Amino acid sequence: MTGKTEPLFAGPDDGGKRLDRVLRRHFPRLALSGVYRLIRRGRVKVNRAPASPAYRLKPGDRIDVSADVAALARDTTMERTAPLTGDRRLPSLPVLYESEHVLAVNKPYGALVHGPDSLADIVAAEYAGEAPSLSFRPGPAHRLDRNTTGVQLFGLTLFGARALANSFHSHRVMKIYCALVDGEIRAEEEWEDVLERDDARRLTISARPDAARGLSATTRVVPLFPGKRFSLVFFLPETGRTHQLRFQSSRRGHPLAGDAKYGGSIDRSRYLLHCQGLAVRSDDLSLPPLFAPLDRFGRKTVEELFGRSAIGTLRRLCRERLTGA
User: Which residue from 22, 60, 120, 126 has the highest number of Cβ atoms inside 10 Å of its Cβ?
Assistant: First the structure.
């Protein structure tokens, strides 16, 4: 290889992965055929020697890439940027739990989990330096909607991300949402639906009989403080479909109060949907039950409608449900 090069170093999460796949992941603007061409022409070397595209990387391997190629792809690579906050503890994101492999934060109202300037970007920037990787960046294990608050999990390592994904896929994650709905719900119910997305209107709807792919959705509903106008409930979803809770409650005549998109009362500034508790069963991770306190809006809403003691009752009932105590 002649000319200037830019060295990259394989991290722990890159170990055992093929050179071509890691480069493709690190330089998303390059097609896989382009990666092969660079390797074939000697513009990529591993530990200063030619390598096959199928070479399995080891942590610490040095990968030299022609500087002009690196510069071309720099604006869209997974480069590690400087932390977006000055404090390691993410002061703008209350940390509920942190280990080597997993991070849990209390997601604020209005924050995006994915996309530009999202929680994913902040967490990746803050934690990527712990175990630098060319092919993996810390990211969310699930996604709360923009206006939903509460427990949000992130995998900080490939090991943690895979373990969380396995738990979600095998339905070994218990989630408890606190919600304020219109109308009175007095008895526990189980809601089952088959859903599809109306992409044009960005709504979740009941699947049509001719729908190519309907997605099943199941939620257990537990009334906490029923009232003639509003009820405070727990939602215990067994599935995680887009807008599942908002649609299912609306379909049964109890939309989230303030959720105008799904027919909720419009005299409230926003709706209350909060992932208050979450427990992960995993063969690989040992996580404690996680609890997220309500934000100021949530506390004020609950206290005004159901009394100041309702906050403590809500916390106790959530812990009992999550831990079985």
Answer: 22
**Distance between CA 135 and CA 259 in Å, rounded?**
39
Element (H, E) at 67: helix 67-73
Q: Is the predicted pLDDT of residue 77 greater than 50, yes or no?
A: no
Domains of the chain: 5-76 (3.10.290.10), 95-163 (3.30.70.580), 173-323 (3.30.2350.10)
The pLDDT tens digits for 107-125 are 999 999 988 888 988 888 7
Which element (helix H / strand E) includes 62?
A: strand 62-66
Instruction: Note the pTM of the prediction, 2 decimals.
Output: 0.77
Q: Is 190 exposed, middle or buried (0-12, 13-18, 19+ CB in 10 A)?
A: exposed
CA-closest candidate to residue 143, choices 114, 171, 105:
114
Cα 252 from chain centroid (whole Å) = 28
Residues in contact with 25: Cβ distance below 8 Å, sequence separation at least 6, in sequence order = 78, 134, 135
C-alpha Rg value of the chain to the nearest Å: 23
- Neighbour-count burial of 48, counting CB atoms closer than 10 A to its CB (0-12 exposed, 13-18 middle, 19+ buried): exposed
Tell me the C-alpha distance between 39 and 310, whole Å.
64
